[in-house]
Amino acid sequence: MAAVVNQYKFYGVDNDTSAAALTMFGTTSSVQNPLATETYIIKSIKVTSASTPTVTVMNNSITTIKSAALTADTTTELLTVPLVVEGGTTLTIQSSNSGSFDIAISYLNIKKEVTS
Question: Which CATH class is domain 2-114?
Fold first, then answer.
């Protein structure tokens, strides 16, 4: 028998200056990409930067937002509709430069749990 558990969650990255593609949700045991039994429905991706980069968002290697321009010291919402990240896939966000960059993600984690 399987049960579905819905959990509303938040994930953030503070003051990244790498300009590298960041894998959201990490890979540690406490914070990781969705497992095969999970689906994330992302409601909001907010970004703030000290400079004026462009931002690219990729969902499982597919570009979903290409070169969204940011204004320095202003928070920008990148999504206009929810974004689904299926289990076993990755979500990456990359800034075009190494200025201070913050990311805030609000999402629903839908877990399918096996119960006995």
Answer: mainly beta
Sequence-distant (6+) residues with CB within 8 A of 25 are 11, 31, 32, 33, 34, 40, 91
For the stretch 67-81, pLDDT in tens is 899 999 999 999 999
Q: In this structure, which amino acid lies at residue 22? A: L
Query: What whole-number distance in Å separates Cα of residue 112 and Cα of residue 78?
Result: 28
What's this model's pTM, rounded to 2 decimal places? 0.85
The residues near 13 (Cβ < 8 Å, ≥ 6 apart) are 22, 24, 101, 102, 103
- Identity (one letter) of the amino acid at 68? A
Ranges of each domain in the chain: 2-114
